[in-house]
Amino acid sequence: MTARLQKLQTHLKMASQSDIHLYTAGTPNGIKVTILLEELGLQYKTTNIDISKNTQKEDWFLEINPNGRIPAMTDKFTDGSTIRLFESGSILQYLVDRYDSEHKVSYPHGSKEYYEVNNWLHWQMGGLGPMQGQANHFTRYAPEKIPYGVSRYQNETRRLYRVLDTALAKSESGFLVGDRVTIADISSWGWVSSAKWAGVDIDEFPNLKTWLYKLLERPGFEKGRHNPTKHTAFEMAKLSEEELDAKAEGARNWVQAGMKADAKK
Ligand SMILES: N[C@@H](CCC(=O)N[C@@H](CS)C(=O)NCC(=O)O)C(=O)O
């Protein structure tokens, strides 16, 4: 049997064993999953969750993710039952564990690279995501500009970008870990592509900028970033601060409404 036929058979077998249904939105945490699904060449269904309408706080959604945030996912587990997944980092780990036996975008369990990928994934989930998320909040969504909050979180985001930039300067492959793209890169990419929204200038970080555009050339990134909605971060990056603030105006209202709803529970 040719290698191509063997690959096709593995792919068809995997497709019939899985029933991936992703509940998501076009945000940095959402697109990390669609990018990985595309990089792995998996079949999946997507439901676009309109976070501006607080669909993520409805009871049926909380059954899948009790934390009321996107992304969330269900799949047919190996025993035929349904498994639910929440927290984007956990979803990425599940997908590579279960579907990347060829190690296209991962390394074998127990290898040094496997643990190095874990380092960056935890760093993104506990550091870059939350800090840049708060930079977005204080820069765009807060009802008033609080300079302390804006500078605290923008500076922390800049510090974290410097960590990435320094690591990439030392990388021979241009990826964060070893010789291939992994969930270390995929988890941070959507955040870095939205730097301007957080008030951070990517031009301050030349190695990171090269990495950002190099990954953009990959078909998996190109397809995944536009699911479930068009990814507009690069167009947004061309806008002035005033134009960006005007775009945030509409979102500010639903962010505030969502916070009030969360505070009441
Ligand atoms: N740590 C979570 C964060 C998820 C998260 O904050 N998702 C945002 C969109 S990027 C969300 O659902 N926001 C809606 C809300 O805050 O109600 C993860 O990585 O999955």
Automatic annotation (TrEMBL):
Keywords: Transferase
Top-level lineage group: Eukaryota
Domain GST C-terminal residue range list: 110-234
Native source organism of the sequence: Coniella lustricola
Record's protein name: Glutathione S-transferase
GO MF term (any one): transferase activity
InterPro entries: Glutathione-S-Trfase_C-like, Glutathione-S-Trfase_C_sf, Glutathione_S-Trfase, Glutathione_S-Trfase_N, GST_C, Thioredoxin-like_sf
GST N-terminal domain location: 17-103
UniProt family annotation: Belongs to the GST superfamily.
